Amino acid sequence: MIYKRSSALFAEAEKVIPGGVNSPVRAFKGVGGTPIFVKEAKGAYLYDEDGNRLIDYINSWGPMILGHAHEPVVNAVIEKAKKGTSFGMPTEIETQIAELAVSMVPNIDKIRFVNSGTEACMSAVRLARGFTGKDKIIKFAGCYHGHSDSFLIQAGSGASTFGTPNSPGVTAGTAQDTLMANYNDIESVKALVEANENEVACIIIEPVAGNMGCIPPKEGFLKALRDLCDAHSILLIFDEVMTGFRLAKGGAQELFNIKADIVCFGKVIGGGLPVGAFAARNEIMNYLAPLGPVYQAGTLSGNPLAMAAGLSMLTELNNQSEIFTSLAEKTAYLHKGIAKVLDDNKIVHTINRVGSMISVHFDGAEVVDFKTAANGNNDTFKAFFHGLLNAGVYIAPSAFETWFITEALSYDDLDFTIAAVDTVAKTL
Ligand code: PLP
């Protein structure tokens, strides 16, 4: 494939945008080469500025669960835009989408809309701290909750139980309040809770990890977290920015039948517009301003275009819940097909999958946490990525990302992809 125009556009972008991109993973640093500039997209396909067609397995990192430029969503946005794009005043549609979300998701009474997943997680943690009167939080290595300071933390050294900043600009003071546990390792969480008795406000987790590839929670792990939280008056926050309205109507809470205290949303809930949200039972949500003392706000929060896109998307998912089964079936088909051709070509690999989230790791061992995810062969991944790209299949430009399956993908698209993996596997 030719990427002449994408390369030229990237060179222009680099002059005025740091690294040429508005979010780092887009720069292809993990795989090398030049980022592809998208011209338009429809259904399962991206069309780039050089006229190449790519089958898209990223789908804007999750939101486009029904495919690109999905007509009901696009029409809802167009109709809303004609009536004004932002008021900073209440609108009826905010209540409509809130009512729908609350009816779809278990264990929530109220929901507050924000503009991104980052804002949702940041606000959820502030609310948890305000509600419990405690400062520390526990997160898991390899889980991503957006780029707010409290989450840009890595495990501390030696015997310390608190984290250290993993980006300049995050203060050591902030890092001290974030404790790092290992995914799927309940003992690591218990040790932190015991060492910080009466200090931990919340445990935040991706109930299916999607930011170190796709990693399912081990049987009993989420339940053990729930029990631990109950025993120590700690709030359990499910970051369902990826899993919400994707794994089931009610997200991971419904899929695993585990109750979270606060749930964070993003991606699908906005139908491709900038939306995030966090939700909980009344007792917790009533702690938020203007009802309660915990401050949280946003000029564009509940923006009418964003609410129109989200309402259209959630309405379709609510009315046609067979979509979740169909998505899971397509993903299982892809899994089986890719595993077979990789096996046939003797490529060592592990594939993880939950619902419509899937990832391919180039390592033979089980991938259960950040450490095992990092064992994957990155050189193989790079060659795999570029081989697929050349064949017209676009997967995430990083070995630590999940592929998102969209309902717009046909079985022909999946067969095309499996054949492309076969061709690429012969070159690895
Ligand atoms: N939480 C999870 C699980 C995510 O995957 C992401 C983004 O990928 C975020 C939070 C942050 O969302 P946003 O990029 O909308 O700020």
UniProtKB/TrEMBL annotation:
GO molecular function: glutamate-1-semialdehyde 2,1-aminomutase activity
Pfam families, sorted: Aminotran_3 (PF00202)
Keywords noted in UniProt: Cytoplasm, Isomerase, Porphyrin biosynthesis, Pyridoxal phosphate
SUPFAM superfamilies attached to this UniProt entry: PLP-dependent transferases
The protein's required cofactors: pyridoxal 5'-phosphate
Subunit structure: Homodimer.
Protein name, UniProt field: Glutamate-1-semialdehyde 2,1-aminomutase
Origin species: Algibacter miyuki
